[in-house]
Amino acid sequence: MTSEKTDFRTTIRQSLTATQNGTVTILSSLLAVEDLLGYIPLEAIEEVASLTNSTTNEVWGVASFYTNFRFTPPGDHVLEVCWGPSCHILGAQNIVKEVLGTLNLQGEGDTEDHTFTFKYNTCLAACGQAPVISIDHQLMGRMTPEKTKERILSVKATGEKGKRQNG
Amino acid sequence: MTKAFQKLVEKSKAHLEQIQSKPRVRISIDLSGLAAGALDILNTFKDEVSANKLDVTISEVGGLGLNYAEPLVDIQNPGGPRVFYNNVTPDQVPSLVREHLIEGNPVLSGAMAVETRDPSLDIPTLTELPMMKGQVRIALRNAGHIDPSDILDYIAAGGYNGLNKGLFEMEPSAVQEEVAKSGLRGRGGAAFPTATKWRFLMGSPGPIKYILGNCEEGDPGAFNDKGILEGDPHTLLEGMILAGYATGASNGIVFIRHGHDTPIERTRKAIAQAYANNLLGENILGSDFSFDVEVSLVGESYVSGEETALMESIEGKRAMPRYRPPFPAAYGVWGKPSNINNIKTLAYVPEIVSRGGEWFTTIGTEKSKGTAILCLSGTIERPGMIEVPMGMTIREAVEKLGGGVPGGKPVKLLQTGGPLGGVLRGDKIDIPLDFDAMAAAGAILGSGGIIVGDDTVCAVDLARLLVAFCQYESCGKCFPCRLGTTHLLQILDRICDFKAQPGDLDLMRQLGNDMQVGSLCGHGQLGFNPIKSSIEYFPDEFAAVIEEKRWPTKNYFPDFFMPDRAKRNQQTETFSSLRRA
Q1: Per-position DSSP letters for chain A, written without gaps between them
Q2: Does A9 fall in a domain?
Q3: Which tens digit of pLDDT belongs to each residue from A33-63?
Q4: B566 in A contact zone (CB under 8 Å)
């Protein structure tokens, strides 16, 4: 095993023990890993299993149940579009259509150059500002397809990685 | 008043005086404010204040609920009026700082309201605003006014008074009786009498018993639980501690969806401050009552808001409902006796204990006491969160406070009580906000989300969206729900593709019936509700799409986009291949 791999495991282990306050469970541990990495790597499944004294099967069962978890690294920026009824009525479908076109995607997923990950959110809880999207966890309300495209292009133009990759 | 509490009150008074001696800027930083760009406003204010070397308190407060007016800022100089500025843009900030903060002249052109009548200012008071008029704010009494991250702000506003009274002047059973007297009923949807629920837990053996505060709030269109935690997290904590005292519980858990950062951070901070001031932990305020509270986060799963699924989730498992019995009061989280209350329900408790149950009964109707906390969104003039007395009609709340549909058009439909609540036709909204009257009319108040649709909204399209949500969020435990919602969605998809088959409506009714009798929780039992209510109220629109193959209104989306759970499972395959490698 290379030292790089060992470091990765050490980082995961640290995130599991250092950042969790309160009761430690499989779910709380997975959320801690997601906060750190933005996804759940195989190593984390094993580390969580050993920390919580459960099987990898049990951990995998929880991780695949909650729709916020993913198992490969996300793109540099995570774009979420709310598809709740308030946003729907005010045109969220048109925003999704624009996003898919701009990012050249068929549905949820990562762009080919891995700069963007698109996902739906069932409610971003800012219904008074519908339709709502979020980029790298920053909420944006009263959106239109045009404004969404502008935001995507301006984020792309900065060339930076998102501050928080988790969603 | 006990010495320990007396000291806190004095400290809070000194704190308040100190704050009032300096100019104060309050900026609404809640999820809605953030979506409206409040963070830019906050940063611009900070920059301007430091550039001008001013000694000003800038407070990040929760929302007043006036979502249409965000970003919302209010400014008050010592001894001067507190002026509210609506829809503030970063460009406006330098002049607000210069004219109001430095020169002491409120900028009338951008001002929406003033806190108390000021003869020199020709603007309405806050309570005269159309969206505030008629509100009775109990759970939201402090939201937007106090700094949610400062426990002294809460105490200075009368906070923890109820707890002090409960702990030192009342027996636990007297606290429960006070809540019984108030007639408080659960605000999570079931409207079960809170004191009766508490009584179940009182009879359960200790020493470990749990009070669970449910802020999962997965219903799209509802954000009032999160709104309370963002604006006034201590009111929840105080209510929870009182519930714990009344029922002899030892632990409290606040249950929140991961990813909603402002309510989570503010609740965690409030808990830490409560511990630091001996309002949580061992021997609270020197009494012999001890109580611990922690936050438990959940991943994205709608069903985790169901009370037994919630307990599975707290234990770190998949959020799937349990069989009942045993009921939570006997066998709850970690197998210990538990009591689950909605955030709104618990947020009323401090005021009920401090002002008496009798007082609470003066608000509301015969069988629904107190207030309703509603979230208005959709095609509405003034979206936001309001707290109005029970008994007000839904029409009054939507049209008078919310301003109705923009342009004075009629309300075509309301989507209430979350996606499972289905729709209500615009001419049926003269019913009062009252649990029993609404149930009798076939409407669900649920968590309080009210989404308004104008005449452009297509009932068939909206029904498909609601069913898509139910399908996506089915936890999968009961196959009538898992397969039923999937089948319902397939049928609606083909109806919307103008490929309806004969008997599709009957087939959906049959499926809906099977789901109702064969599912463990409300998700499957009510999963047909969106279609049922839509067909009942808008049969013409279904006929237009099914038979005439045309869309009856202009707000519809034939290329319907939604997340695909099956595609997520392909990630699973990627993962398995990794595993084998």
Answers
A1: --HHHHHHHHHHHHHHHHS--S---HHHHHHHHHHHHSS--HHHHHHHHHHTT--HHHHHHHHTTSTT--SS---SEEEEEE-SHHHHHTTHHHHHHHHHHHHT-SSSEE-TTSSEEEEEES--S-GGG-S-EEETTEEE-S--HHHHHHHHHHHHHH-PPPS----
A2: yes
A3: 999 999 999 999 999 999 999 999 999 999 9
A4: no
Residue of chain A whose alpha carbon sits nearest to that of B316: A27
Q: How much is the pLDDT for B577?
A: 55
- CA B105 to chain CA centroid, nearest Å: 37
User: Which DSSP letter does residue B46 get?
Assistant: H
- Kindly state whether residues A141 and A87 are assigned to the same domain: yes
The verdict on A53 and A81 lying in the same domain is no
How far is the C-alpha of B543 from the C-alpha of B550, rounded, in Å? 9
**CA B222 – CA B533 distance, rounded (Å):** 20
C-alpha closest to that of B71 among B52, B95, B44, B98: B44
Indicate the helix (H) or strand (E) that contains B516. helix B504-518
Low-confidence ranges of chain B (pLDDT < 50): 580-581
Q: Strand B413-416 vs strand B423-425: parallel, antiparallel, or unpaired?
A: antiparallel
Q: What is the pLDDT of residue A19?
A: 76
Over chain A, what is the mean pLDDT?
A: 91
In this structure, what DSSP letter does residue B334 have? Answer: G
pLDDT band at A167 (very low <50, low <70, confident <90, very high): very low
Inform me whether the pLDDT recorded for A2 exceeds 70.
Answer: no
Does any CB of chain A come closer than 8 Å to the CB of residue B219?
yes
Distances in Å between the alpha carbon of B208 and those of A102, B241, B250, B268, B291? 54, 14, 6, 22, 10
Domain contains A8:
yes
Among the partner-chain residues B316, B563, B572, the one whose CB lies closest to the CB of A62 is B316
Query: In chain A, how many domains are there?
Result: 2
Q: Can you list the alpha helix ranges (DSSP code H) found in B203-314?
A: 224-231, 233-247, 261-276, 307-314
pLDDT at A164 over 90: no
Question: What is the predicted ipTM?
Answer: 0.94
Q: Which domain holds residue A27?
A: 3-63
Task: Mark which of A63, A85, A100 sits at the end of a domain.
Answer: A63
Instruction: Say what the pLDDT of residue B573 is.
Output: 53
Domains, in order of start, for chain B: 19-128 (3.40.30.10), 160-361 (3.40.50.11540), 371-453 (3.10.20.600), 459-568 (1.20.1440.230)
Judge contact between B506 and B500, C-beta under 8 A: no
Structure tokens at A114: 């891995």
Alpha carbons B394 and B445: distance in angstroms, whole number:
10
Amino acid B414 reads L
Residue A95 near residue A86, CB atoms below 8 Å: no
- Whether B269 and chain A come into contact, CB under 8 Å, resolves to no
Strand B73-76 to B24-28 pairing: antiparallel
pTM for the structure as a whole: 0.95
Written as one string, the DSSP assignment of B402-434 is S--SGGGPPP-EEEESSGGG-EEEGGGTTSBS-
Q: Mean per-residue pLDDT for A83-100?
A: 97
* B223 Cα to chain A: minimum distance (Å): 6
A89/B555 Cβ within 8 A: yes
Single-letter amino acid code for the residue at B508: M
Q: Are residues A90 and A114 in the same domain?
A: yes
Q: Are A61 and B320 in contact (CB under 8 A)?
A: no
pLDDT tens digit sequence for B41-53: 999 999 999 999 9
